Amino acid sequence: NIELNELKDLFQYLWGEIYSYRLNAGLKKGLYQSFNASKSLATKRIADLLGIGYLIPEIELVKLVFPDGNEKIGTLMSAVNGIAPKKMLYAEKQNSLNVLDAICHERDHRPGNYFVRLNSNGEVDSLEAFDNDAPMTFSLTGNINLVTYWGSSPLLLSDGALNLVHVDKKLAQKILKLKDEEIVNSLKLILS
Fold this sequence. Notes:
With 192 residues, this protein is α+β, with helices and mostly antiparallel strands.
């Protein structure tokens, strides 16, 4: 028997895959994997520029060659350590991820796509997000909004209110000081 939560998770996953397929409809056949890889790399670069690179694991572009000579392009990400965020209080840590998600228009950082890292006392130390290939900022479509997938922590609530209890001062200062040239120079080799 399938539990209701499992069914909901399955529908959420399938909707994400269908949505991703629709967003990438403008790509030529065979470029899908490299496009998703470039979006993941771009998310990491933006996080690094904002001084919150610890939220996104290290990631690199790789080419996988199969014995039959077939090749695939993708990303290799370092292991994400932590526990799934089930009923924990970590809103202060999550707000920096919300801000990064708003800048990149990442809609897919629901609880199944980030872990909570605990310190030696069992207290929340940080978050680390994975599955970073859905940022709308780097997509080919102009149809962008801040609606998130089920279970994600949105920047805006359904009534339009800001969902930030806390904004990290260092992050806010970093955003204000960031220059266009820094962004362009950081992304020009992976987004074209």
